[in-house]
Amino acid sequence: MKPIRQKNRLKPIIVPFITGLVLIGMGFISNRDFNLDIQNMPSLPRPIAEETVMITAAGQSTDAYIIKDIANQLMIHNYFIPQADHLDFEGIKTLVFVAGNSAISEKILDFTFEDEKERVLKLLKLASEKNLKIILVFIGGSQRRDEETEWFLEQIGGQSHYIISTSDGDRDQFLYQMAGDLKIPITLVNALDDISEPFASAFR
Amino acid sequence: MGKSRMIKYIIGIGLTITFAFLFPNLTTFIWLTIVAKIREAIVSGDGGQLILASAYTTILNTIQNALLFIACYLISLISIKRFKWADSIKMMMTVVMFIILGALRAWWIEIPWELLTAVITATVIMIMVYFTYNQYDSIHRMVLVSCLVFFAFQWLDIMPVFASGPFGITDIPTSILLASSYLDSDTVLNFVGLAFFVPLFISSWIMTSLFSSHDENIAIEKENHLKEIALESVKSSAIEHRIYQEINSIAHDLKTPLVTIRGLNSLLSMSHDPEKTEAYTQRIDSAVEKMSEMISGFLYESSKQEIDAIELINYMRAQIPVEDENLKISINYDEDLPLVNVNKIRVSRALLNIVENAIGAPYRHQLKIIEIEVAKRELSLAIIIKDNGTGIAKEDLPFIWDPGFSTRNTTGMGLFFVKKIVEDNNGQIYIESNSDGTSVTVLFPGIRKETS
Fold it and tell me: What is the CATH number of the domain that holds B312?
């Protein structure tokens, strides 16, 4: 039989105690206010886009459903087609891209990032041909800023007429600088709840 | 490790690794359900759907991680048995392997993996097992503890309190956290996460501690068992010694009739008188009869005979070694004593043993007085042996009949034998003792004397 190690009765208490301390610390650090002091427009001074709007997801994350819900609440006439293609453009005057790559969606909807890139590029080309207004919305925060999402932000952001993002998604000021360089209006909101106002200002 | 056991381990590792790698693909339909629940929560504003999505995510991630972790644990177990590494090395090896295989799986099947949560959980499991002194090679325990701890820690990924921190950074947790923020369900989700995390973590910790206590108890039991075996062996040697002693004494007792036979035989060879010859022959016959009786009594427990109390006591008395001038032994008989049906040899040996104990007892008086009283108690015969020694300590009295118990550096088998012999002969024995001396009472059922 294996010899049993000598017991120190205090030791078993140390594990949950240290785990608790680490978790509290992590919670505290993670909740620190990362608001940036960025000079950006709280909303557009006058509308730049018209209804009817098509909302589509670039990367197929569920974030697009939030924007669709906000549009519905704001009574903005919209079509929500996460995987929209060129056939869905009838009567559309504004194209809203909600950027955010979802690896799980790729798996369950059986498409690849290359397929999604191709679709987005086609939509951008078509929007440009039809002189549609493009709005880029990014609400995924720092967690969604993977390589794939950055590609969407770069490609769509460069051709957008307005960019709306949560500030924690642009901690590196990637969108802010791009908007500055390309003279695209941008609004960075602190919280997801604050997105309704700039979004509505694009239409009314 | 035996060959068949090694094969079992290898099969176990193969199965768990295969399943751990296939699991994300096998459960695609559940991930679809989770995504549908998140969408439904956003569209309908129903926070309940979000909690359900969180629960499904937590369960899937738990199974996914636990399977891989168990596979790594089994691999480390094989290496340990082969290389005899220390527990801490095995534990570190398991965690490192878990990180490598987890990263490999995430890359290969392109599924997001909450690296930090998984690594913290694996480390916590190992620390927990190490600090609660659990045996590392107990597979069922490790499986149970791993599942519990993983299930507890996966809840941290969907708690908004850790959002933008190290937890919940992959696709589904991010979607859940965003939806939760949009639906103002952060407090609810934090509460649910905590309500699962805290009890699960505490119970897993309690479980490992209980396992450890169980190990300790088993070890103590085994130690006690070994001690009992050792004690049994000592007792059995003491019994053997006692039997040897009895054989010695019976051999000694047999010498008396033998000497008688020898003497009579010499007389017989010289005698020419037929009357004397007949008398000698009868006496030789009687001595042989006595020897036969002694041998039967010694060999056969059940060899009993109806015997007069006085004859029994006299037989015992003849064997008392009276060499001490300071010793006085008196015997008092009541009148009309009943007959008893006993094994004369054995009972007399038992009575002699009591008397020898009384002789060997410590005395504060110069003169040792031993009184043997043979009396009638209702229908029974009572033999009471009293001494004027210092008595037996009160706390020792309950143990004096136990085999091996002795206060005088002897084998401690004497009184055990006495009690056994008395009981084998349907008798009873009692002892009373105080500082003025000890009194042992032996009772045998009496038989009425046939009166002619």
Answer: 3.30.565.10
